Amino acid sequence: MTPRLEARHISKCFTNLVANDHIDFALEPGEIHGLLGENGAGKTTFVNILSGMYAADEGEILIDGERVTIRSPRDAIQAGVGMVHQHFMLIPAFSIAENIRLGLVPTPRTWLSSAQHSNREIERFTKLHGLGVPVTRRVSDLSLGQQQRIEIVKALYWGSRILILDEPTAVLTPDETTQLAEHMRSMARDGQSIIFISHKLEEIKLFCHRVTVLRHGRVVATRATQDVEVGDLARLIVGRDLGTPAQLQKQIPGPAVLEVEQLTVLDDRGHHAVRDVTMSVRSGEILGVAGIDGNGQEELVEALYGIRSPVHGRVRLLGEDISRVSVMERQKLGLRNVPADRRDEGLILDFSIWENLALEESTAGEHRSFLQHTGVLQERARELTRTFRIRTPSVTAKVRQLSGGNQQKVVLARVLSAAPKVLIAAQPCRGLDIGATEYIRQRLFEERARGTAVMLISADLDEVLTLSDRMVVMFRGELVGIVGREQADRERLGRLMTGMTADG
Q: 263 with 460: CB under 8 angstroms?
């Protein structure tokens, strides 16, 4: 059988970094093919070459046995390759139909067609692919699962026979993940070929026919998933045994350190995002906040950290009312935040590593000369890169050049080096490989053991269950459940996340 897509000897370098080193890859018709590797292993560069974001330095791409030239996303679309990015490429203010039409390569079928006719045509197409939402609805009014389905339908509408799904389950509930798996299998039965990128090894094993593992820009293995176990995949990814994963040890928590009373917060449109929330976090405890993205978690964190003012309620830190004080005052009291979006909120990408690590520095060096102070900060940055295992040739390298896992370690190094009394960690492991995830979870356990009060906000149920002493669930801005570790399970939390009762 001729492969639907074949990549031969694909290589790509960025200055002195070899991102892809003579990669050979084949995708069969109707196949779901997993792509694995640590952050920085070359996965993103490789699929960006396939989807036209980058041009390969060497190698060739064949589709259905014919060599194609892909040097732009439009080339990829015309060749039948569509990519659904981890961060959706939709315009929230536009309707579903407008997003699907946007960027469509003109064909005789679409030339001079009226918007009404296009809407009817798109409506029929979306219903055929299981999206039961009117195409006139604005994307901003949809759930993340529905937005992802739109991205997939858009790629199919544009004529894609090859779909690349980058971390598609990172923001989905268990039910939405099951629905996505069923949709992928249906597409595969219809002849679509899918490249499925995920750090969740159980999903790779469950969803995919075959899996290819990259390490340091090279293919180290291609296996049928039925012939390989999850532990084998982990060893192939990191090139060694990971050892026993960190476990939550029993520990008696201390008194409440962060207290929230009847907190109500508005979103940017003036709607209630957080409604009458009351909860507390104790020293030496990890409180997990579960929920589908968009149910008030972002506004809750902003209100706790001082970025957004509440319209009602109080926040107390170490017994002191901080409801109306600045971010800097809260930091002085010992509150620190690991933001959900490390690239836009946690880092300045065009700053160096040492500059990012110095962002929260006080003016302790104000009496030194500029060069002396810079030298002190750079030496401190070198110590932190060693302590937090940040892979970089130099602390003067721009953060933009680091992998996602190493970018997150920079954020963590800056925040934890301040020895916080309360740590808010929002989606700390999203998009990270198995090695980086295990490292960051271990650091959170160490903070808990040190007596830090940790609030963990995560849409990943397994992460909440693994890391938390207690769990609360947010739905439409309200706390709909408080669950102890002994009573918690995926099904119960999943039901609460979708607004159902804990027992169905």
A: no
The pLDDT value recorded for residue 180 is 84
List of E strands, 156-233: 162-166, 193-197, 210-215, 218-224
Contact criterion met (CB below 8 Å) for 462 and 138: no
Q: Strands of 422-426's sheet, edge to edge?
A: 335-338, 422-426, 453-458, 285-290, 470-475, 478-484
Residue 95 per-residue DSSP state: B
Q: What is the CA radius of gyration of the chain?
A: 24
The one-character DSSP state at 276 is E
Lowest-confidence segment of 208-212, 220-224, 271-275, 401-405 by average pLDDT: 401-405
Q: How far is CA 244 from CA 247, 248, 433, 464, 485, in A?
A: 9, 12, 16, 19, 21
Cα 176 to Cα 144, 172, 179, 458: the distances in Å are 9, 6, 5, 16
* Count of beta carbons in the 10 Å neighbourhood of residue 403: 18
Contact predicate 119/135, CB 8 Å: yes
Q: Show the tokens assigned to 209.
A: 């026919």
Using alpha carbons, list the distances in angstroms from residue 141 to 93, 152, 423. Answer: 9, 18, 31
- pTM value is 0.72
> Which tens digits make up the pLDDT trace of 360-382?
764 444 444 555 578 889 999 99
How crowded is the C-beta side of 278, counted as CA atoms within 13 Å?
A: 4
Alpha carbon distance 53, 33 (integer Å): 21
Rounded-to-integer distance, Cα 188 and Cα 383, Å:
49
Structural tokens at position 92: 């929230």
Q: What would the two tokens of residue 34 be?
A: 């997993």
Crossing angle of helices 404-416 and 370-387, rounded to 10°:
110
Output the DSSP codes for 386-405: HHTT---S-TTSBGGGS-HH
Indicate the residue type of 261. E
CA angle, 93 as apex, 89 and 98 as ends, to 5°? 70
The pLDDT tens digits for 390-413 are 888 899 999 988 877 788 889 999
The answer to whether 414 and 339 are in contact (CB under 8 A) is: no
Number of continuous H segments (helices) and E segments (strands) in the chain: 16, 20
Residue ranges with strand state E in 135-284 = 162-166, 193-197, 210-215, 218-224, 256-266, 272-282
Residue 245, pLDDT > 70, answer no
Q: Kindly tell me the burial class for residue 372, based on how many C-beta atoms sit within 10 Å of its own C-beta (0-12, 13-18, 19 or more).
A: exposed
Contact predicate 367/412, CB 8 Å: no
Res. 104 pLDDT band, cuts 50 70 90: low
Name the CA dihedral angle for 232, 237, 239, 241, rounded to a multiple of 10 degrees. -50
